[in-house]
Amino acid sequence: MGFSDASARAQLHPLIISAAQAGGLPAWAECAPGRRKHTHRVADLMDTWAAALALGEDDRQRWRAAAILHDALRDAEPASLVGWTDLDWPPGLQHGPACATRLRADGVEDAEILEAITFHTVGNPRLAEISDYLYMADFLEPGRRFLAEERASLRARLPEERDAVLREVAAIRIGERLKKGERLLPQSVEFWNRLVEQ
Question: Of 47, 80, 146, 173, which is least surrounded by CB within 10 A?
């Protein structure tokens, strides 16, 4: 799956601005109200971390937009998303890549945002700050009830302890797939190897 590496950051796409500033979703989105609340909590975390990292306003908007858009197709019928990309991923993990494909078709060329959305459930094998933070925010947002104490502790360590927290979050998320007997995608294995080799 290729992404344009042209600097789309010079001018933010209207869909990115709408998502960042008003929580807007594209007309094709299939995202239930409860899921939208989740994306807003993820966006709040991303914005907090971006501010703590002293990112500029455009980058803060990009981080918020990635968070708002990452689950835009999460409530679509999973089987309907298969075949939108060349990724051989289980149907339940296709919503990220499918969303990135739709955004690209709508003219979004920001490679970092598209990669962050694509890999938010499995981890990005490439070193990409926005991807890593979206992967963590999706798991650590405070509305999720499981492992509440542990997740609160991990949230409190960000962004200062980014690498350590990212490894811990990946260990939990990958460990859950292993406990369920689910296959690990090659991208998740590469992601984990990147983390332990840093």
Answer: 146
The predicted-structure confidence for 74-85, as pLDDT tens digits, reads as follows 999 998 998 889
Per-residue model confidence (pLDDT) at position 79? 87
pLDDT at 11: 87
Q: If you write DSSP's letter for every residue of the chain in order, what string do you get?
A: -----S-GGGS--HHHHHHHHH----TT----HHHHHHHHHHHHHHHHHHHHTT--HHHHHHHHHHHHHTTTTTTS-HHHHTTSSS----GGGTHHHHHHHHHHHTT---HHHHHHHHTTTT--SS--HHHHHHHHHHHH-TT--TTHHHHHHHHHTTTTTHHHHHHHHHHHHHHHHHHTTPPPPHHHHHHHHHHHH-
User: Please, what is the end-to-end C-alpha distance for the chain in angstroms?
Assistant: 25
User: Residue 10: what pLDDT?
Assistant: 57
CA–CA separation, 88 and 198 (whole Å): 27
pLDDT at 65 over 90: yes
pTM beyond 0.90, yes or no: yes
Phi-psi region of 66 (alpha: psi -120 to 50; beta: other; left: phi over 0): alpha
Say what the pLDDT of residue 77 is. Answer: 95
Q: Which of 46, 71, 72 is nearest to 60 (CA)?
A: 46
